[in-house]
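Please fill in the sequence for the structure shown.

STRUCTURE ENCODING:
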Protein backbone atom coordinates (compact mmCIF):
# COMPACT_ATOMS: atom_id res chain seq x y z
CA UNK A 1 0.00 0.00 0.00
CA UNK A 2 1.34 3.42 -0.97
CA UNK A 3 0.62 5.66 2.05
CA UNK A 4 0.27 8.69 -0.24
CA UNK A 5 -2.35 6.91 -2.33
CA UNK A 6 -4.96 6.90 0.43
CA UNK A 7 -6.31 9.07 3.23
CA UNK A 8 -6.93 6.70 6.12
CA UNK A 9 -6.51 9.06 9.06
CA UNK A 10 -5.10 12.31 10.42
CA UNK A 11 -2.71 10.77 12.94
CA UNK A 12 0.20 10.26 10.52
CA UNK A 13 -0.21 13.47 8.51
CA UNK A 14 2.37 16.22 8.85
CA UNK A 15 1.48 19.85 9.36
CA UNK A 16 2.65 20.55 5.81
CA UNK A 17 0.31 17.90 4.40
CA UNK A 18 -2.65 19.25 6.38
CA UNK A 19 -1.95 22.76 5.10
CA UNK A 20 -1.78 21.46 1.52
CA UNK A 21 -5.36 20.25 1.86
CA UNK A 22 -6.35 23.66 3.27
CA UNK A 23 -4.66 25.63 0.51
CA UNK A 24 -6.30 23.64 -2.26
CA UNK A 25 -9.68 23.67 -0.50
CA UNK A 26 -9.55 27.47 -0.31
CA UNK A 27 -9.26 27.53 -4.11
CA UNK A 28 -12.28 25.25 -4.38
CA UNK A 29 -14.28 27.53 -2.05
CA UNK A 30 -13.98 30.14 -4.79
CA UNK A 31 -15.10 27.58 -7.38
CA UNK A 32 -18.20 26.83 -5.30
CA UNK A 33 -19.08 30.53 -5.28
CA UNK A 34 -19.24 30.68 -9.10
CA UNK A 35 -22.60 30.68 -10.94
CA UNK A 36 -21.58 27.30 -12.42
CA UNK A 37 -19.53 25.67 -9.64
CA UNK A 38 -17.92 22.91 -11.69
CA UNK A 39 -14.37 22.24 -12.89
CA UNK A 40 -13.25 19.39 -15.19
CA UNK A 41 -10.41 18.23 -12.93
CA UNK A 42 -11.59 14.62 -12.54
CA UNK A 43 -13.48 14.13 -15.80
CA UNK A 44 -13.31 10.47 -16.76
CA UNK A 45 -12.71 9.31 -13.17
CA UNK A 46 -15.20 7.10 -11.34
CA UNK A 47 -15.69 7.46 -7.58
CA UNK A 48 -17.61 4.95 -5.48
CA UNK A 49 -19.15 5.88 -2.12
CA UNK A 50 -19.17 2.63 -0.15
CA UNK A 51 -21.14 3.24 3.04
CA UNK A 52 -21.86 0.30 5.33
CA UNK A 53 -23.31 2.63 7.98
CA UNK A 54 -26.16 5.11 7.63
CA UNK A 55 -25.01 8.54 6.52
CA UNK A 56 -26.61 11.58 5.02
CA UNK A 57 -24.25 14.53 5.39
CA UNK A 58 -20.94 12.82 4.67
CA UNK A 59 -22.13 10.73 1.73
CA UNK A 60 -23.92 13.67 0.11
CA UNK A 61 -20.94 15.95 0.73
CA UNK A 62 -18.56 13.52 -0.98
CA UNK A 63 -20.98 12.99 -3.88
CA UNK A 64 -21.39 16.73 -4.42
CA UNK A 65 -17.61 17.22 -4.19
CA UNK A 66 -16.95 14.53 -6.80
CA UNK A 67 -19.59 15.91 -9.17
CA UNK A 68 -18.21 19.45 -8.80
CA UNK A 69 -14.92 17.97 -10.07
CA UNK A 70 -16.78 16.34 -13.01
CA UNK A 71 -16.21 12.78 -11.78
CA UNK A 72 -18.76 10.01 -12.22
CA UNK A 73 -20.23 8.91 -8.89
CA UNK A 74 -21.67 5.53 -7.87
CA UNK A 75 -23.48 5.45 -4.51
CA UNK A 76 -23.52 2.12 -2.67
CA UNK A 77 -26.41 1.13 -0.41
CA UNK A 78 -25.83 -1.79 1.92
CA UNK A 79 -29.54 -2.56 2.26
CA UNK A 80 -29.88 -3.24 -1.47
CA UNK A 81 -26.50 -4.86 -2.01
CA UNK A 82 -25.15 -8.38 -1.87
CA UNK A 83 -23.71 -7.58 1.55
CA UNK A 84 -27.20 -8.13 2.94
CA UNK A 85 -26.96 -11.64 1.42
CA UNK A 86 -23.69 -12.45 3.13
CA UNK A 87 -21.06 -11.01 0.80
CA UNK A 88 -17.86 -10.19 2.69
CA UNK A 89 -15.88 -6.96 2.56
CA UNK A 90 -13.18 -8.81 0.60
CA UNK A 91 -15.76 -10.01 -1.95
CA UNK A 92 -17.01 -6.46 -2.30
CA UNK A 93 -13.45 -5.19 -2.71
CA UNK A 94 -12.67 -7.66 -5.49
CA UNK A 95 -15.86 -6.76 -7.33
CA UNK A 96 -14.94 -3.09 -7.07
CA UNK A 97 -11.52 -3.83 -8.50
CA UNK A 98 -13.10 -5.65 -11.43
CA UNK A 99 -15.24 -2.58 -12.18
CA UNK A 100 -12.08 -0.45 -12.59
CA UNK A 101 -13.24 2.17 -10.10
CA UNK A 102 -10.63 4.89 -9.57
CA UNK A 103 -11.42 5.77 -5.95
CA UNK A 104 -13.49 4.50 -3.05
CA UNK A 105 -14.96 6.50 -0.18
CA UNK A 106 -15.64 3.98 2.58
CA UNK A 107 -17.52 4.15 5.87
CA UNK A 108 -17.65 1.03 8.02
CA UNK A 109 -18.38 0.14 11.64
CA UNK A 110 -15.12 -1.81 11.99
CA UNK A 111 -11.94 0.13 12.84
CA UNK A 112 -9.35 -0.58 10.17
CA UNK A 113 -11.83 -1.35 7.39
CA UNK A 114 -10.50 1.45 5.20
CA UNK A 115 -6.92 0.30 5.72
CA UNK A 116 -7.94 -3.25 4.80
CA UNK A 117 -9.46 -2.08 1.52
CA UNK A 118 -6.40 0.06 0.78
CA UNK A 119 -4.22 -3.03 1.09
CA UNK A 120 -6.45 -4.96 -1.33
CA UNK A 121 -7.16 -2.40 -4.05
CA UNK A 122 -5.23 -0.30 -6.53
CA UNK A 123 -7.96 2.34 -6.30
CA UNK A 124 -7.31 5.12 -3.83
CA UNK A 125 -9.23 4.82 -0.55
CA UNK A 126 -10.65 7.69 1.53
CA UNK A 127 -11.76 6.84 5.05
CA UNK A 128 -15.18 8.37 5.71
CA UNK A 129 -15.27 6.93 9.24
CA UNK A 130 -14.20 3.54 10.56
CA UNK A 131 -15.84 2.62 13.84
CA UNK A 132 -14.60 4.82 16.68
CA UNK A 133 -11.15 5.10 15.06
CA UNK A 134 -10.93 8.11 12.70
CA UNK A 135 -12.91 10.43 10.42
CA UNK A 136 -10.17 12.40 8.65
CA UNK A 137 -12.17 14.60 6.28
CA UNK A 138 -14.43 15.77 9.12
CA UNK A 139 -11.36 16.82 11.07
CA UNK A 140 -9.89 18.58 8.03
CA UNK A 141 -13.03 20.62 7.46
CA UNK A 142 -13.21 21.43 11.18
CA UNK A 143 -9.59 22.57 11.21
CA UNK A 144 -10.12 24.59 8.03
CA UNK A 145 -13.07 26.36 9.67
CA UNK A 146 -10.95 27.18 12.72
CA UNK A 147 -8.19 28.58 10.53
CA UNK A 148 -10.69 30.88 8.81
CA UNK A 149 -11.53 32.41 12.18
CA UNK A 150 -8.12 32.61 13.86
CA UNK A 151 -4.66 33.70 12.77
CA UNK A 152 -2.84 30.53 13.78
CA UNK A 153 -3.13 27.29 15.69
CA UNK A 154 -0.14 27.75 17.99
CA UNK A 155 -1.99 29.84 20.58
CA UNK A 156 -5.44 28.38 19.88
CA UNK A 157 -7.31 26.76 22.77
CA UNK A 158 -9.90 24.20 21.70
CA UNK A 159 -12.43 22.43 23.92
CA UNK A 160 -14.27 19.28 22.77
CA UNK A 161 -17.36 18.30 24.77
CA UNK A 162 -19.17 14.98 24.74
CA UNK A 163 -18.74 11.26 24.13
CA UNK A 164 -15.00 11.23 23.48
CA UNK A 165 -14.75 7.49 24.05
CA UNK A 166 -16.87 6.58 21.01
CA UNK A 167 -16.08 9.57 18.79
CA UNK A 168 -13.92 9.16 15.68
CA UNK A 169 -14.44 12.89 15.08
CA UNK A 170 -12.85 13.74 18.42
CA UNK A 171 -9.87 11.47 17.80
CA UNK A 172 -9.15 12.89 14.35
CA UNK A 173 -9.54 16.47 15.57
CA UNK A 174 -7.21 15.84 18.50
CA UNK A 175 -4.55 14.35 16.19
CA UNK A 176 -4.80 17.27 13.78
CA UNK A 177 -4.88 19.99 16.42
CA UNK A 178 -1.88 18.59 18.26
CA UNK A 179 0.07 18.31 15.00
CA UNK A 180 -0.66 22.00 14.38
CA UNK A 181 0.44 22.91 17.94
CA UNK A 182 -2.98 23.88 19.31
CA UNK A 183 -3.92 23.36 22.94
CA UNK A 184 -6.70 20.78 23.28
CA UNK A 185 -8.96 19.92 26.19
CA UNK A 186 -11.94 17.61 26.57
CA UNK A 187 -14.89 17.81 28.92
CA UNK A 188 -17.38 15.03 29.56
CA UNK A 189 -18.78 12.68 32.18
CA UNK A 190 -16.13 10.17 33.33
CA UNK A 191 -18.04 7.39 31.55
CA UNK A 192 -17.44 9.13 28.21
CA UNK A 193 -13.70 9.64 28.56
CA UNK A 194 -11.47 6.77 27.38
CA UNK A 195 -8.64 5.46 29.50
CA UNK A 196 -5.25 6.84 28.54
CA UNK A 197 -6.61 9.85 26.66
CA UNK A 198 -4.06 12.07 28.42
CA UNK A 199 -1.34 10.27 26.41
CA UNK A 200 -2.58 12.22 23.38
CA UNK A 201 -1.58 15.44 25.11
CA UNK A 202 -5.03 16.70 26.02
CA UNK A 203 -6.29 18.17 29.29
CA UNK A 204 -9.31 16.46 30.85
CA UNK A 205 -12.11 18.30 32.66
CA UNK A 206 -15.45 17.29 34.10
CA UNK A 207 -17.06 20.61 35.05
CA UNK A 208 -17.95 22.67 31.97
CA UNK A 209 -18.95 25.85 33.80
CA UNK A 210 -15.51 26.14 35.41
CA UNK A 211 -13.60 26.19 32.12
CA UNK A 212 -15.76 27.23 29.18
CA UNK A 213 -14.59 30.85 29.41
CA UNK A 214 -10.97 29.86 28.73
CA UNK A 215 -11.36 28.58 25.17
CA UNK A 216 -11.38 30.06 21.67
CA UNK A 217 -13.19 27.13 20.07
CA UNK A 218 -15.90 25.07 21.74
CA UNK A 219 -17.01 21.97 19.86
CA UNK A 220 -20.00 19.94 20.99
CA UNK A 221 -20.19 16.33 19.83
CA UNK A 222 -23.44 14.60 19.00
CA UNK A 223 -24.76 12.62 21.93
CA UNK A 224 -25.50 9.18 20.55
CA UNK A 225 -28.84 8.66 22.23
CA UNK A 226 -28.83 5.07 21.00
CA UNK A 227 -25.99 4.44 23.49
CA UNK A 228 -28.07 5.69 26.41
CA UNK A 229 -29.05 2.08 27.13
CA UNK A 230 -25.42 1.50 28.12
CA UNK A 231 -25.89 3.87 31.05
CA UNK A 232 -23.25 6.42 30.05
CA UNK A 233 -25.20 9.16 31.86
CA UNK A 234 -28.36 9.18 33.99
CA UNK A 235 -30.61 10.97 31.48
CA UNK A 236 -30.60 13.22 28.43
CA UNK A 237 -32.04 15.95 30.60
CA UNK A 238 -29.19 15.72 33.09
CA UNK A 239 -26.62 15.70 30.30
CA UNK A 240 -28.01 18.97 28.94
CA UNK A 241 -27.97 20.49 32.42
CA UNK A 242 -24.30 19.63 32.98
CA UNK A 243 -22.77 19.68 29.49
CA UNK A 244 -25.19 21.27 27.03
CA UNK A 245 -24.29 24.46 25.18
CA UNK A 246 -27.07 26.69 26.51
CA UNK A 247 -27.43 30.43 25.98
CA UNK A 248 -26.36 30.93 29.61
CA UNK A 249 -23.08 29.13 28.94
CA UNK A 250 -22.53 31.06 25.72
CA UNK A 251 -22.51 34.27 27.78
CA UNK A 252 -19.58 32.78 29.74
CA UNK A 253 -17.46 32.28 26.61
CA UNK A 254 -14.78 34.58 25.22
CA UNK A 255 -16.20 37.44 23.10
CA UNK A 256 -14.50 36.25 19.88
CA UNK A 257 -14.85 32.51 20.50
CA UNK A 258 -16.72 30.24 18.10
CA UNK A 259 -19.05 27.27 18.49
CA UNK A 260 -18.76 24.16 16.32
CA UNK A 261 -20.65 20.90 15.89
CA UNK A 262 -19.84 18.09 13.41
CA UNK A 263 -23.55 17.31 12.98
CA UNK A 264 -26.15 16.11 12.95
CA UNK A 265 -27.01 17.98 16.15
CA UNK A 266 -29.50 16.93 18.79
CA UNK A 267 -30.98 20.36 19.37
CA UNK A 268 -31.99 20.79 22.96
CA UNK A 269 -29.50 18.15 24.14
CA UNK A 270 -25.84 18.95 23.45
CA UNK A 271 -26.69 22.33 21.92
CA UNK A 272 -29.75 24.57 22.24
CA UNK A 273 -31.45 25.80 19.04
CA UNK A 274 -30.72 29.48 19.71
CA UNK A 275 -27.04 28.63 20.24
CA UNK A 276 -26.77 26.57 17.05
CA UNK A 277 -28.24 29.51 15.12
CA UNK A 278 -26.32 32.24 16.95
CA UNK A 279 -23.62 34.57 15.63
CA UNK A 280 -20.98 32.48 17.41
CA UNK A 281 -21.97 29.33 15.54
CA UNK A 282 -19.94 28.37 12.47
CA UNK A 283 -21.84 25.13 11.86
CA UNK A 284 -23.01 26.13 8.36
CA UNK A 285 -19.44 27.18 7.51
CA UNK A 286 -18.38 23.65 8.45
CA UNK A 287 -20.90 22.23 5.98
CA UNK A 288 -19.71 24.55 3.18
CA UNK A 289 -16.07 23.80 3.93
CA UNK A 290 -16.90 20.10 3.92
CA UNK A 291 -17.56 20.14 0.18
CA UNK A 292 -14.42 22.19 -0.53
CA UNK A 293 -12.10 20.05 1.61
CA UNK A 294 -13.49 16.86 0.07
CA UNK A 295 -12.94 18.29 -3.39
CA UNK A 296 -9.33 18.89 -2.37
CA UNK A 297 -8.96 15.38 -0.97
CA UNK A 298 -10.42 13.77 -4.09
CA UNK A 299 -8.30 15.93 -6.40
CA UNK A 300 -5.06 15.11 -4.57
CA UNK A 301 -5.66 11.37 -4.20
CA UNK A 302 -6.95 10.96 -7.73
CA UNK A 303 -3.53 12.05 -8.91
CA UNK A 304 -3.78 15.83 -9.05
CA UNK A 305 -0.94 18.12 -8.05
CA UNK A 306 -0.98 21.29 -5.98
CA UNK A 307 0.51 24.23 -7.85
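FILLED IN BY: designer on duty
SEQUENCE:
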Amino acid sequence: MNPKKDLLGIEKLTGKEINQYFNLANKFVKVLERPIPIVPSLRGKTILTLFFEPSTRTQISFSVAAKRLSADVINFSQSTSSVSKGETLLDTAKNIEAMKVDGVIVRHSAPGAAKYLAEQLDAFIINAGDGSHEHPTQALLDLMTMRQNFDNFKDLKVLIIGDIAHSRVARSNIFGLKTLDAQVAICAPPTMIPLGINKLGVDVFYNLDDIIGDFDVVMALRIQIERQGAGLFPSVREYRTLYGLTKERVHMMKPKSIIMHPGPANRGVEIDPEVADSDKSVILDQVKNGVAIRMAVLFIHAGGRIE
